[in-house]
TrEMBL record:
One of its GO terms (biological process) is carbohydrate metabolic process. It comes from Eisenbergiella massiliensis. Coiled coil: none annotated. Keywords: Hydrolase. Residues 416-487 form the Fibronectin type III-like domain. This is Fibronectin type III-like domain-containing protein. Gene3D superfamilies: Glycoside hydrolase family 3 C-terminal domain, Glycoside hydrolase, family 3, N-terminal domain, Immunoglobulins. Signal peptide: none annotated.
Length: 859
């Protein structure tokens, strides 16, 4: 292997980015990557300094993508925080596993220049700011501590003031033109000043408890303390039910205890991508709590506006905040890794996840079982007061309609949300106590102003799935209609009666469980921890049969060559265009042309269609990005999807999608790999901020409006990940065991709601298996459900690298028409399968028709 050697993978650091792209693997802030030629020994970690100042211990991860290497991720940003400056990074005293010393070495690293807004994109930036304003949630405001007085001095506590996060890691990471941090926002976008002596304690990213003298001195400047708690979250790794992730660290708690003992007024800013422990706010008497979520490039500006009252908060929680993590039944059937555990790679281990909570996801559990949360679904305070007056609900056999008048009875302008919940009668089927069936948001109402909202809920939004008959039922009995500005505040508005049980529709049965498991109901009451981490080959204990669909072959076109432009002009030529292709060409079109996004020197495109030059085909580029365009060239940075859901503003979700589409086209990208809309089954899913909500109706409606904004403006959307992609650690070895009813009412339902709003140009299957078979190879899921029941005619693609754990040929046979991220290796693999008779030309033709169909809409 040669002599030990360090190699610097990226010589630049952007101090504006807390969590870099590779941070998804290790969760180390402000990091630089150093490649190790040899693995380090157990005691082989040496000393690392930046300009002679020691930094915290880095973390090692095994990169297994474009290159295979041990990579040391170092938090150089603890020191390298100034813009446009050179720093010296030194590594000394390192040893290999064999005890061979690494040569001491030093590297020069450069920080980037400070970013500034581009006036040409002012309108787009304003949409990002508006979404950030409405995506933040005021959880608590005792004694009217907020808003703060104009010109107040901010006594800021916690390293979160230097680690203010605006996005998640992985697929939904943003790369915005400019992104003012917390300190920038104080200086540039508020009348506040900051206690600089106090804030200087936290500049090295440690949660320090100031001494008593400093606390008293700070109190002389202002009687209000602002505590910032920040948590990362994103793709590849789930979060942990321990200190430093879901719970406070010991240092954070000691700091908070000391601060609250001195200050009369305290404000907590929770800058986290997921709901975390909130008990400490009660324990230490925190007066006001603002949940920022990850609200995009202008998150810090929106926060200043909420703190000083220029913006009246109107966000609502898209998830229940439990009093403790383990209050949720889903917490007991999740692989709860702790800090210090050896975390397996995404394909190193198998995971069996039993969805024992069944239909009782999120508020459906807390509301049905009488379990009090810390904050209910839909909760969110305002600086003003609103009165909600409802009429009597009416039901015409298909739709429930409720008129709601909302009046601003307070002293500040603001927006309010009306949320309609349905309680269905118990009949043959046990049901959640209430489900969200409609919501609307007012315009900004001045004091004394009112607005009449019409809420309409379709019967399909509160029907129940009967596993015995494969039907959606509207059972006979009395239905109660509740309305309020949160689930906890929803009151009975009226009732309607269904005289006899009605079957709304009967569906094809797909993805039914192949093994028995306990399901939570009101009789058995509690969940048990039965999910397991197992060897990869043991992840599927009982395998479901693999269905097969064999399409008819196309008649071979033998006439004059047809080129792409002719099909664009006359789509009726599609069959002839596809049938003229050779087997080799068809195989190439079934495979993505590779990605360009993993490493620092790549430009960030997630994939591209292969080009067959003789047909003069264009290349279609695709990129990740629920929140923007996840490429190297800077662009817009919208709030994460969970924060978009928190706005409860459909029109705003549409505008967010519209802006992303406009900026995508400017980068020649016409297919976006979003929105992702998996259910928030467990709050510790690493991709929690990337998805919308625990509720399928809210998530589906907001995702659908987001997608409609993109599609109406010329960029394709892609609904992902189908289905049950509800954890990310060991995701390629994960197996979800879930009831058919829960699939139909929760995990399929979110996509069904979105599709009713907007059919996407493409969909993406998930990494994980569901009920004994991977969706990516499940022809019933693709042909019966996605194509048949839902009418999707565009591309069905795999998630990137699904073929690591699923047979590529079987995925293509099932109808997955784009193997991603692809390479010539997989084109050749398909060619060989055709020669061996494992794969028919007719299947390839069927799949390529869908690929071309998607391309024709966009390029």
């Amino acid at each position: 292997m040669g002599k030990p050697k360090f190699s610097l993978m990226d010589k630049t650091l952007n101090p504006e980015i807390v969590d870099g792209k590779m941070n998804a693997f290790v969760k180390v802030p402000y990091g630089i990557q150093v490649r190790l030629s040899h693995p380090l020994g157990k005691d082989g970690y040496g000393r690392v300094t930046v300009d002679g100042i020691p930094i915290s211990r880095g973390k090692i991860f095994k990169l297994d993508m474009v290159i295979k290497a041990d990579v040391l991720y170092l938090p150089v940003g603890e020191v390298a925080r100034e813009f446009d400056r050179e720093y010296t990074l030194e590594l000394t005293g390192f040893k290999t596993a064999e005890g061979v010393p690494y040569p001491d070495c030093s590297f020069k690293i450069k920080t980037t220049a400070k970013s500034r807004p581009d006036p040409a994109f002012a309108e787009n930036d304003e949409v990002a700011l508006e979404a950030a304003r409405e995506g933040m949630v005021l959880l608590r405001n005792e004694k009217g501590v907020l808003p703060l007085k104009e010109g107040a001095v901010l006594n800021c506590f916690g390293r979160g003031q230097y680690m203010y996060r605006n996005t998640s890691t992985g697929a939904s990471m943003i790369n915005p033109r400019w992104q003012p941090d917390f300190m920038d926002a104080i200086k540039e976008h508020s009348s506040f000043s900051v206690n600089e002596e106090l804030s200087a304690l936290y500049c090295y990213l440690q949660d320090v408890t100031p001494g008593g003298n400093m606390l008293e001195k700070a109190k002389e400047q202002s009687d209000t303390a602002v505590i910032l708690i920040s948590r990362t979250s994103g793709e590849f790794l789930d979060n942990h039910p321990d200190k430093g992730s879901y719970y406070l660290t010991d240092d954070e708690e000691a700091m908070i205890k000391a601060v609250t003992a001195v200050f009369d007024k305290t404000v907590a800013i929770i800058n986290s991508g997921f709901p975390m422990d909130i008990a400490w706010t009660q324990k230490y008497g925190i007066d006001a709590v603002v949940y920022t979520g990850f609200t995009g490039m202008l998150s810090s500006y929106a926060l200043m506006e909420i703190l000083d009252g220029r913006t009246n908060p109107s966000g609502k929680l898209p998830d229940t905040w439990a009093r403790d993590y383990y209050d949720s039944p889903a917490a007991h059937n999740f692989i709860n890794f702790k800090e210090g555990d050896e975390i397996p790679g995404e394909k190193d281990k198998g995971v069996r996840l039993y969805y024992e909570e069944d239909i009782y996801v999120g508020y459906r559990y807390f509301d049905s079982f009488g379990k009090a949360p810390a904050y209910s679904f839909g909760h969110g305070l305002s600086y003003t007061d609103f009165a909600l007056e409802t009429g009597k609900p009416s039901f015409d056999g298909n739709n429930v309609t409720l008129q709601v008048t909302i009046t601003n009875t307070g002293k500040r302008a603001g927006k309010e949300t009306a949320q309609l919940y349905l309680h269905a009668p118990e009949g043959k089927l046990e049901k959640p106590y209430r489900v969200l069936a409609a919501f609307e948001k007012t315009k900004e109402l001045k004091p004394g102003e009112k607005e009449l909202l019409a809420l309409t809920a379709c019967a399909s939004d509160f029907a129940s799935f009967d596993e015995e008959t494969g039907s959606y039922l509207l059972e006979a009995g009395t239905y109660e209609v509740y309305c309020g500005n949160s689930l906890a505040k929803a009151v009975l508005a009226g009732c309607f009666t269904v005289g006899k049980t009605e079957t709304l529709r009967t569906v094809e049965r797909v993805c039914r469980p192949v093994e028995e498991f306990k399901r939570l109901n009101r009789e058995n009451g509690t969940a048990e921890a039965v999910s397991q981490l197992v060897d990869l080959d043991q992840r599927i204990r009982v395998r479901a049969p693999r269905p097969s669909y064999q399409p008819l072959p196309l008649k071979k076109h033998t006439g004059k060559k047809i080129i792409y432009a002719q099909v664009k002009e006359n789509p009726g030529l599609m069959d002839e265009f596809v049938s003229q292709m050779s087997d080799k060409e068809l195989c190439r079109m079934n495979v993505c042309g590779g990605s360009n996004w993993y490493l620092p020197w790549q430009n960030g495109e997630a994939g591209k269609t292969n080009v067959i030059k003789k047909y003069k085909m264009p290349r279609m580029l695709v990129s990740d990005g629920n929140t923007g365009i996840n490429v190297k060239k800077k662009n817009i940075g919208m709030p994460c999807s969970a924060s978009i859901a928190a706005t409860f503003n459909k029109e705003l979700a549409y505008r967010v999608g519209s802006v992303i589409a406009k900026e995508s086209k400017a980068q020649n990208i016409y297919q976006n790999l979003g929105p992702g809309m998996n259910i928030h089954r467990n709050v510790l899913n690493g991709r929690h901020p990337e998805y919308f909500s625990e509720d399928p109706y809210l998530a589906g409606m907001m995702a659908g409006m987001h997608a409609k904004g993109m599609e109406d403006n010329g960029v394709g959307s892609c609904y992902k990940h189908m289905f049950c992609n509800n954890s990310d650690t060991s995701r390629k070895g994960s197996h979800s065991i879930v009831s058919e009813r829960a699939l139909r009412e929760i995990y399929f339902r979110v996509f069904e709601v979105a599709i009713a709003v907007q059919k996407p140009s493409a969909v993406m299957t998930s990494y994980n298996a569901v009920n004994g078979i991977y969706p990516a190879e499940n022809a019933d899921v693709i042909q019966k459900l996605i194509r048949g029941e839902w009418g999707i005619d565009g591309m069905v693609m795999t998630d990137w690298g699904t073929y690591d754990t699923v047979d590529a040929v079987e995925m293509v046979k099932a109808g997955n028409c784009w193997l991603t991220e692809g390479s010539k290796k997989y084109s050749r693999l398909l060619e060989q399968a055709v020669k061996e008779g494992r794969l028919s030309r007719a299947v390839l033709e069927r799949n390529v028709r869908s690929v071309i169909s998607t391309m024709l809409k966009r390029v």
